[in-house]
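Support case: user asked for a sample of complex input and structure output to validate their parser. Sending the pair below.
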Amino acid sequence: MLGRLLPHPLLTLALALVWLLLVNSFTSGQALLGLCLGWAIPLFTRRFWPDRVRIARPWWLVFFLVKVLWDILVANLTVALLILGGRRFARPAFVPVQLELRTELALSILANTVSLTPGTVSAWLSPDRRTLLVHGLRVTDPDALAREIKTRYERPLKDIFEPDIVEPDIFKPDTFEPPC
Amino acid sequence: MQEIAISVLIVIGAAFTFIGSLGLARLGDFYSRLHGPTKATTLGVGALLTASVIHFSMEGEGISLHELLVTVFLFITAPVSAHLLAKTALHLRVRSIAPPPRVASSSRTGNERSA
């Protein structure tokens, strides 16, 4: 019953927070309106969220975000230097990274993190979602890059979102059909 | 003091946005050029938005935090568009300095199941 009325409690809170930031006024009235929107929007968009968003270790997520923000800062400086240094320093390469993550949210966050952090852009995800192809701007050791992505970002995400999913996975096939 | 901080932040932001755009012109191939807009510009926009937060929190009534939202949306959308561009480029076999992996450039990849 509660599951039907309030399918995504975390989304509700997040949407309420986004609403408060959007109107830029932190009053109780706006908070109530935000909660109402946060309750209604997940109900109307239920089809986009088949599984309940679940964060097993919320505090680790905070640490992870701080770490990623720091990495983004470093990434900006290194890429800026690479651009100013010109082509001489660029040594682009494609690096496949074998994935252990299975949930869609964790995968999206990993791909986004890779794109935002030092010299890498996630370029392609294999159809079975087991390999993420990463394009690096300056790759000296492809294996080291893959290992760093796995230990630095994938491991914490696995601990945060899916500590209990072990191989073999229960992964649903992609049901999305493009209209064309 | 406050004006100095805002000015410095705006200059830093403008510099990084400029470097990011410069990357579009200077880097060697399509995939390398993707790195400029996804990274160098995020710090640029971040610095500009921090300046905005300081300015409007001091000037107006109460603190102004909706700039945070711009950052959040940027961090969500910039990598997604870069990913889609890279994926499309792989699909179309755009010229690349780095040898593109065979698996990704084979004709049917990813989610496309269209006829």
